[in-house]
Amino acid sequence: MQGSIQLRWRYWLAVLCMLALIGCARPAPEQRLRATLEQLHQAIEAREIGDAMAPVAEDFIGEQGLDAAGLRRLMQLQMLGNQQIGVTLGPVDVQLRGDTASVRFTALLTGGSGRWLPEQAQTYQVTTGWRLQGGDWQLYHAQWEPTGR
């Protein structure tokens, strides 16, 4: 009798654990979007402009009407002026709406000659718009504002 009760408790405990894990799991689209954002982050730090531009949509619109070509030029300019670029992201808030998503985060960008301390640093509040196209997330909109000014 006692073995039967213990078996039932173990069964219900296993069911509760599975439900808790299911409740904590992020949906697949959000996981892919977060992975895309991480790849973008790593590409910028690795100074790989092609990889950094891979998720950027052709019709991208950024701060002050910046288009995809302008974003590429902005990255090139920063990479020419800084031997080393650092990106530190704050908490990332993802809001999914069907095949689109809004992602908000803070980003600390640093740049310099690659020595121990960076010569430049600025924190930005960033809001981005993404759309799911062919199974891949594309960045179609971004706004960024310096913080602490």
Structure in a nutshell:
This is Nuclear transport factor 2 family protein. With 149 residues, the protein is an alpha+beta fold.
Assembly type of the chains comes to single chain
Q: Please report the number of helical segments.
A: 4
- Main beta-sheet strand count, sense and barrel state: 6 strands, mixed
* SSE series: HHHEHEEEEE
Mean pLDDT: 86
Helix share, percent: 40-55%
**The CATH top-level class label:** Alpha Beta
Stretches with pLDDT under 50, minimum 5 residues: none
Radius of gyration: 21 Å
CATH topology: Nuclear Transport Factor 2, Chain: A
The tally of strands reads: 6
Protein name: Nuclear transport factor 2 family protein
Organism: Xanthomonas hortorum pv. carotae
InterPro entries: NTF2-like_dom_sf
Overview of this protein structure:
The chain has helices at residues 2-24, 28-45, 49-53, 68-81, and strands at 56-61, 84-89, 93-97, 100-112, 120-133, 136-146. The protein is of the alpha+beta class and 149 residues long. It has a single domain (27-146), classed as Nuclear Transport Factor 2, Chain: A (Roll). Strands 1, 2, 3, 4, 5 and 6 form a 6-stranded mixed β-sheet that branches. A hairpin with a 2-residue loop joins strand 3 and strand 4 (100-112). The N and C termini lie far apart (70 Å). 10% of the residues are buried.
